[in-house]
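User: I'm writing a short methods note and want a consistent example. For GGDEF domain-containing protein, I'll paste the sequence; you return only the structure tokens, no commentary, since I'll be parsing the reply automatically.
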Amino acid sequence: MIKPQKPKNEAERLHALRTLQILDTSHEERFDRVTRMAKRMFGVSISLVSLVDENRQWFKSAQGIDASETPREISFCGHAINQDGLFIIPDALEDERFYDNPLVTDAPNIRFYAGYPLKLRQGINLGTLCLIDGEPKELDKEDQQLLEDLGAMIEQEINSIQLATLDELTLISNRRGFLSLAEHSRNVCLRKKMSMTIILFDLNKFKPINDEYGHHEGDFALTQFANVMRDVFRDSDVIGRLGGDEFVAMLNDTDKEQIDAVLNRFDDAIEAMNQSINKPYKIAYSAGVASFSYQTDMSLDEMIERADAAMYEQKKARSR
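Assistant:
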């Protein structure tokens, strides 16, 4: 058996998947309708909407199988997300990657697999709409087109979820998405008795970038700033764009020394980014930090307000 490799942009892919907050949610008719259609149209025993998480593949919709997830290292879908086109295995017993895979040698005894990679956007494949059967099969061009059409229907449903929680410009969480993810992170901190820290970022002299160089340059600056946030912060941290030129991060289980180290890395990354983009302006920012016990009674909005106040104090100090 050959284990699936992880995409080069795995961190970005996982962030996008988790931002959707679709993992471990209930089955929905809009997804089940498509998998029922696929199972019937192709005459296969199993059809799935499978989302590839860090160490597992989880089934948002499943027809013909009771399992809700399997390990990623034995998944066919883990291989399928590494390409943009259909991933088709006519007979798994004749494929060196899968002939001794436990999903082939034991239940559900896969012989045929066909997966359509579900794209959130170009280069970000979250999982697959896949067909599975216990007998070898071939898909002709008409069947392949049908699978692609059904996969596009699933992508439309996923995109409708994305629009509610993702900032369209920077492709990190919008305010709604951030607050939802941060509330989940806060519950984890409460259970594990871990501290929480909010860092609020505000771009300095952002309006002159728009006024002097155009809104396309302002959008470029916001996107670059978001990219640095995505690169510097941990996968366990929650990041988002609150609106305009305000960004936010929520960290858990970090002390002052660790927070200072993160801010120093972030400052170095912004400086390196400014040098690499070679623009007539520099992207600069102020940051406000507020830390809280897991026992705090403050709401997330109140915690953000504390960080906002600290950020404005920093702005004032710099203007003196």
